[in-house]
Give the backbone structure.
Amino acid sequence: MTGIGFVLVTTFLASAVEAIEMVTIVVGVGVTRGWRATLVGTGAGFLVLAAVVVVFGLAPSAIPIGPLRLLVGALLLVFGLQWYRKGIVRVATRGLAGIQGEEAEEGAEWTGPGLDWTAFVLAFKGVLLEGLEVAFIVVTFGAGANQLGPAVIGGVGAVVVVGAIGAAAHPLVSRIPRSLLQLVVGTLLTSFGTFWAIEGLGVTWPAGDLAILGLLAVYSVTALTYMGIERTHALGFGSRRVA
Amino acid sequence: MRLLWSWMVAFGRFWYRFIVGDDWTVAAAVGVGLVLTALLNLQGIPAWWLVPIIVVVMVGASLRRASAR
């Protein structure tokens, strides 16, 4: 493989990992809360990202990525935990019946007036942080190999391809019952949030980005365990309120 | 002025609900966990495991409290 081809493929693959995280958040939030505010947040994230790239150019080290990871990760973690916890209770006590009839719930689709700022903020942060990670990869590989053009094509191509796959897959995702979807998205946000917040503190994860899969596994097993306990309690003591 | 105040209140309420939600103990425990992780990291102790453990324990405690209500 030529130098150009190597940089293009390497940048594409590395950027695709970040793009998958970005698209997972956008599709999850869009399907759960509604698309309008999610897409506005996504667009705003890309606009700010473009401005940052223009301002910082080839000096991405000037961007405080560690504190940014910590901030975004901590916010995603505490918010994701709310959906995670409520998803556990709802799936355990109501099965896959959904959460219709509950107004203004965090996991329900937004039907109120104005913009759904929760969806906006989640999509905005996901796009901005992951977009910055892609920019880092592009500049690192591109400048290192003196092949910035192919690196840009690889990075942007990864975001476009993964984004197109996410757009094609969203009708399938929207068929998932809302209570289960809230739990799944809550688990994803909690996993990404944990990973980024800890990484933002300068702590190295064992196995690098693969640690996200480990976190997903741990939180999924935890959710299944707590759902079993909740279901047992519900059978033993009758219905209960969702906190 | 009143418009500005109402906007600030709505802004503060949004972030409170976003960060704290309906169980402040979970958000507080996560905050403490991150601080402890940073302190352990400064001592050269790898503490990536701390926050996941806190998450698992605090979610269980929160569910238990909700069940007891």
In short: Residues 39 and 45 of chain B are 9 Å apart (CA to CA). Chain B has a mean pLDDT of 90.
